[in-house]
Amino acid sequence: MSSPEFTADEMMTIGAARSLRDGAACFVGIGLPSTAANLARRTHAPNLVLIYESGTLGAKPGRLPLSIGDGVLADTADSVISVPEIFNYWLQPGRIDTGFLGGAQVDRFGNINTTVIGGDYANPKVRLPGAGGAPEIAASCGEVLIVMRMSPRSFVEKLDFITSVGYGTAKGDREALGLRGRGPVKVITDLGVLEPDADTCELTLTQLSPGATVEQAREAVGWPLKVLDEPTVQQTPTETELKVLRELKATIAGGTE
Amino acid sequence: MSSPEFTADEMMTIGAARSLRDGAACFVGIGLPSTAANLARRTHAPNLVLIYESGTLGAKPGRLPLSIGDGVLADTADSVISVPEIFNYWLQPGRIDTGFLGGAQVDRFGNINTTVIGGDYANPKVRLPGAGGAPEIAASCGEVLIVMRMSPRSFVEKLDFITSVGYGTAKGDREALGLRGRGPVKVITDLGVLEPDADTCELTLTQLSPGATVEQAREAVGWPLKVLDEPTVQQTPTETELKVLRELKATIAGGTE
Amino acid sequence: MARILQLDEAIAELVHDGDAVALEGFTHLIPVAAGHEIIRQRRKDLTLIRMTPDIVYDQLIGAGCARKLIFSWGGNPGVGSLHRFRDAIQNSWPVPLEIEEHSHAGMANRYAAGASGLPFAVLRGYAGTDLPEQTDTIKTIECPFTGERLAAVPAVNPDVGIIHAQQADRAGSVQMWGITGVQKETVLASARSLVTVEEIVDELTPRPGAVVLPQWVVTAVAEVPGGAVPSYAQGYYERDNAYYQQWDLIGRDREQFESWLETEVFGAERSTR
Amino acid sequence: MARILQLDEAIAELVHDGDAVALEGFTHLIPVAAGHEIIRQRRKDLTLIRMTPDIVYDQLIGAGCARKLIFSWGGNPGVGSLHRFRDAIQNSWPVPLEIEEHSHAGMANRYAAGASGLPFAVLRGYAGTDLPEQTDTIKTIECPFTGERLAAVPAVNPDVGIIHAQQADRAGSVQMWGITGVQKETVLASARSLVTVEEIVDELTPRPGAVVLPQWVVTAVAEVPGGAVPSYAQGYYERDNAYYQQWDLIGRDREQFESWLETEVFGAERSTR
């Protein structure tokens, strides 16, 4: 059986979906995380619990939501609660197994910037949307999955601003800061997957996307990238994964994602 | 028109009801306060907002509730909220105009004991139920009405335990303690009504119940009672007040109050 | 996913001697049957936690299950005192009872802090009262912005939180409605939780004012129709007000109480009250 | 009792130059018409507060109404940046914009503290991030029981809180359902409040998941059908997703924006968006 055709973005979304354990409670942001979580719920993880920061617990949307507060989330949730409650009673105590984060910049310890680029804070070159739920998702979820396309502008030696903490500057920093989740366990990109080194927490290329090379990955990263001696290659998307993913995406044709 | 017959307890309940302003939000405890508030809502104060600490906002019970968490309160409320919310979002910010308190002991500054009598805290002669909502009702309601039958055992020189603060030991104590409500504006008893002196906050007999005398009141109080030069006499219950009160009480015949 | 267990299995597995246990309910939906099962299994040295300990706590205390009570109002609502509670405090019968006493506002915030994964809560409370002198669980804290002084109380995080609800579905998600008190916080603050329910249904139909606890935050569900009697379960049965008055007579006397215990708890496979 | 006013009367009376104003809504029920009326009445020097300032805040900022923005995520949801917001921060156009920046958890707790009459809130937040360096509204506080260090943030208490809801009754009690975000807290934290509603009804029928604000905590209600367009009002209309994308083009260019302002806000007695 020949593998079906697929894009690097599709591989990235499917890789993210596969990282979600059935039955886990997952804090989902809009865009790729929501697509990945809804894909997982329709494939290997039918009991995945989707939680959106708008206050929907256990949403089971029949189509991809178009915003974090889409009515389809409230309509299909086990419970809709207030925004203070979602952060205080559900995220903060560590009840949520997996959080998704993206960002404009990530560094080698999985710290993330979604605030400003260039200049300084008061006079930035580019003003980004800011923190949103990210700092506390990064702190309190049992584990974090980061999903970002690789490029030297995004994978940088030094962040312009630390919005959310991955591993700080070294192993042990999370514990010293009182952050109770494990931190980012995977950075899922279009070229492959990075995971923290067990001893140093430095992000290390452990898997390549089908067709991608270590050289491509090194060039797309703004620091000397650590690479596992023999990185594996991600399993290519199955026909089912691709079919379900494309059906999901079709439900939001014409909308924003 | 001759006055109808009535008991001292009926006068006390009616006096309490009359103290409630139409449209006010009233934090109601079970027993006499609930009877008085429901009487007021059926007579001069149809827009009185009844709030019970079980979390019912704007209850409009068709009969007297038998407990603070009676189902009739939830069924008729504008909104039923959690107990943390009732204390944090509604009582604490001073949103509630009037609170009712009773107790086993009250002193000349309207401080109340509902905790222990005699002995000491660890080995009391009588263990009472304790604080419940009272300390924060006393602190945060716009004003407090205390309702208690007068007797030397209840109106005491010195409390065995301060459960809820009236005026502390002198005028100005409430402000020093950071208590934001005005404190007890009336102590409504079977023999008459006490009000705080404008200069000292000491409770002063300002009204007598019909038929009661200053001497009776002095004998029923464990400290040298201050009496207004010419205490007025409470208006006797109207026929309507008595009729509605008795109908209300009849709705709980056989139940507990 | 919550496990669906029999009540006796659930208590045997979840409640151990020495545990801190909260059986919550605010007049409505009091988990009385679960309390009786704890007595029946002769648990001891429990720290019992509840804002409004009423007759089921009087029974647990009288049966000698408790070493300590954390509470804010201990009475027989609408009737008067709890005699077993008073006997334990005043006469150490049948065993001494340590108490940790708060106001409702304080206890509600302690549960909320527990549910929130915070070590403490801040409130406007206790100022000028004698309560802070009697416990090391009420302190003052200064606002870092205004300098104002407020009360601080530590979180409560029971080993086991037990509540009663109207319904659960087969996966163990729970729905309760009417007055729901501090029950959500109790489950979320506790390391383990048990929800007894009037019935297990195929699907939870959303209702106005309902509180839903998803199955993944509930440890176990037990179907116990009438599990809140003599309190009430809105939509199922009314409060047995007469029983609260009868309890005053039973609880008042040690011998009568012990006879009640033998007949109604130890003698019954499942108590009717 | 809340007063039932026309939208323009309500804004004229409740919102003054220099006020701190929160128009809240979390994707759903965003009080857009009220925001446009503020622009139309040419308010200035406002401190705008909102967790998720989106296009109506972009419009208020672009129109020069705001001196300061207190927020946690400023973007066009699902589309990208807010260009007027960026132009104000990066180029002080049309007027300089001061910012006070938090996380969602921090902002939600600031509202909750405001609603609770507390001067501050405590949370596990901000640790290790650069956010505390940029504001004096994030401090650390020590738990008086465990010694643990946590974040503290000051309450927000807007001069005016404005939200949109589905329904009010004739006395001004408000009911909203679906995603209700931080709107209850916004009204309770504010000195004055305005609720625009899809319709005023004779009676509020209880609904699953509904939040009710009784009339005695609401200052004014204005009936504004479509008052949340281009966001949505569950049970009334869907979100106009295309408009959020169109806004990206309008907001990107100063001249296009000013032409939009003239036509859609100043030129319209009541804007359709």
UniProtKB/TrEMBL annotation, chains A, B:
InterPro entries in UniProt: CoA_trans_fam_I, NagB/RpiA_transferase-like
- GO molecular function, one example? CoA-transferase activity
Q: Which organism is it from?
A: Saccharopolyspora spinosa
- Family label: Belongs to the 3-oxoacid CoA-transferase subunit B family.
| Domain of life, source organism | Bacteria
One Pfam match, by short name?
CoA_trans
Q: What is this protein called?
A: Glutaconate CoA-transferase subunit B
TrEMBL record, chains C, D:
The identity of this protein, by name, is: Glutaconate CoA-transferase subunit A
Q: Which InterPro entries does the protein's record reference?
A: CoA_trans_fam_I, NagB/RpiA_transferase-like
The record's annotation in SMART domains points to: CoA_trans (SM00882)
> What species does this protein belong to?
Saccharopolyspora spinosa
An example of a GO molecular function for this protein is: CoA-transferase activity
In the record, the note on similarity to other proteins reads: Belongs to the 3-oxoacid CoA-transferase subunit B family.
Would you say which domain of life the source belongs to?
Bacteria
